[in-house]
Design brief:
Length: about 170
């Protein structure tokens, strides 16, 4: 499991006074500010965050040390991380996406279905993007309790009962 968890990303400047457009990956978008200071993946930069308002596709925010449009634009694409211990514990049936990426996926008979490449959100349920053996393209597996009955983080494996024809 990762030491740091990505909780957001900077989408660029918002306005001309140093605000940034912030994409939040937290369950409640505005709560990203509660985990501050947020830092870059390498830990070289750290930011306190003040959410100023909600905007299309994200939040407008002020980051400590960012006072100009040029400085905000220079951070475009920067992912923001927090140490895992700063995040709340989750109930047994909820998982941080970062914990699922890289897990091996097996069917209920023990046959390998692949490895989790990413977790996508389509608005209704999450989808696990799998690299599947013998498949040229990745496979999208619905991440529901009925299709994915078992996630074993300790063993780094998922047991799935995929819909008929998904892997053919």
């Amino acid at each position: 499991m990762s030491e740091k968890i990505c909780v957001g990303a900077i989408a660029g400047a918002f306005g001309v006074k140093g605000e940034v457009r912030l994409k939040s990956f937290t369950a409640e978008p505005r709560e990203i500010a509660n985990y501050a200071p947020l830092e870059t993946e390498d830990g070289a930069q750290s930011f306190d965050v003040k959410i100023t308002r909600q905007v299309n596709n994200g939040l407008a925010a002020r980051l400590s040390g960012v006072t100009t449009k040029e400085a905000a634009d220079a951070l475009r694409g920067t992912q923001l991380f927090v140490p895992r211990e700063r995040l709340p514990s989750l109930p047994d049936d909820e998982f941080y996406h970062a914990d699922l990426i890289g897990l091996d996926v097996f069917d209920t008979g023990g046959t390998s279905l692949g490895k989790v490449l990413s977790v996508l959100n389509n608005g209704a349920d999450d989808l696990l993007e799998l690299s599947a053996p013998g498949q040229k393209q990745s496979v999208l597996l619905p991440f529901t309790k009925a299709i994915v009955p078992t996630v074993d983080l300790a063993q780094r494996r998922i047991v799935a009962d995929p819909p008929e024809g998904l892997f053919s």
